[in-house]
């Protein structure tokens, strides 16, 4: 199967996974990216079964609205049972690198609220050690060079993602050449650098479930 077919398969599988849990008052957290888009399209078939969504980006909010699915401000909802999102890399502890689509901060906020984080990914995303994919770090623009110098001290090679402004008005540094053996420690270290909005390591709050698209079908890992 192609990577796009695997993304479609896990998007469909996530919608099927949610079906028994969808009720009149259910709010679904929705992530960002091409895999999340597959999920949005699959979820749209069941839009009459639940209340609405909270989106982790303006792009996902727009796609949801185009399907006629209500999108709420996170401050307007009391709780989110399920958050469904993709990842750039995920390890066997279900720790992730996210932010390839520059939505990491809002993704991390919605994931923090959600009781259950379901990661949807094709088989190419599952790794033994995080770090081959450059780690995105969102920064306050005036702090970009300072943050980059501090990241070099931690052993990484930060590269400014030129021309990208996030939904929060931040900029992105993509950090190369990190071998991430202690993801929680690094996640905390990076967040302590003044000027960092957040970083794309999801280790303090990993996924609860991984729906992995493989050539043998969608596998569920917990
Ligand atoms: C966006 C993300 C995405 O989940 C991640 O980049 C994976 O994207 P895709 O499903 O397109 O491969 O973190 O900020």
UniProtKB/TrEMBL annotation:
It catalyses: aldehydo-D-ribose 5-phosphate = D-ribulose 5-phosphate. One of its GO terms (molecular function) is ribose-5-phosphate isomerase activity. Pfam families: Rib_5-P_isom_A. Pathway: Carbohydrate degradation; pentose phosphate pathway; D-ribose 5-phosphate from D-ribulose 5-phosphate (non-oxidative stage): step 1/1. InterPro entries: NagB/RpiA_transferase-like (IPR037171), Ribose5P_isomerase_typA_subgr (IPR020672), Ribose5P_isomerase_type_A (IPR004788). Substrate binds at residues 32-35, 85-88, 98-101, 125. Keywords: Isomerase. The active site is at residue 107. Its EC number is 5.3.1.6. Homodimer. Belongs to the ribose 5-phosphate isomerase family. Catalyzes the reversible conversion of ribose-5-phosphate to ribulose 5-phosphate. This is Ribose-5-phosphate isomerase A. It comes from Oceanobacter antarcticus. The gene is rpiA.
């Amino acid at each position: 199967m192609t990577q796009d077919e695997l993304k479609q398969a896990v998007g469909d599988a996530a919608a099927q996974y949610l079906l028994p849990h969808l009720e009149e008052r259910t709010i679904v957290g929705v992530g960002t990216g091409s895999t999340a888009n597959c999920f949005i399209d699959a979820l749209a078939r069941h839009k009459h079964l639940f209340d609405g969504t909270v989106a982790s980006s303006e792009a996902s909010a727009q796609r949801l609205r185009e399907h006629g699915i209500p999108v709420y401000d996170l401050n307007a909802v009391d709780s989110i049972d399920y958050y469904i999102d993709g990842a750039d890399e995920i390890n066997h502890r279900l720790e992730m690198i996210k932010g390839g689509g520059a939505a990491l901060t809002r993704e991390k906020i919605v994931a923090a609220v959600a009781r259950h984080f379901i990661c949807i990914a094709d088989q190419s995303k599952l790794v033994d050690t995080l770090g081959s994919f450059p780690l995105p770090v969102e920064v306050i623009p005036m702090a970009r060079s300072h943050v980059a110098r501090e990241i070099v001290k931690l052993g990484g090679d930060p590269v400014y993602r030129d021309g990208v402004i996030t939904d929060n008005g931040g900029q992105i540094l993509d950090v190369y050449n990190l071998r991430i053996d202690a993801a929680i420690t690094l996640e905390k270290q990076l967040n302590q650098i003044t000027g960092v909005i957040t970083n794309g390591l999801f280790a303090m709050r990993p996924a609860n479930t991984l729906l992995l698209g493989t050539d043998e079908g969608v596998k569920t890992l917990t």
